[in-house]
Amino acid sequence: MDEYLWVLKRSELDLIREIEPERMSELSEDELLVLHKRVRKARNKHVGNYRRKGAKRVSEVGGRGAARPGNKKSLLRAEAFEEALARVSDRLAEVAHEEAESLKAERLAHAQ
Question: Which residues of 9-28 are buried (b: 16+ CB within 10 A; e: fewer)?
Answer without folding.
Answer: eeebeebbeebeeeebeebe
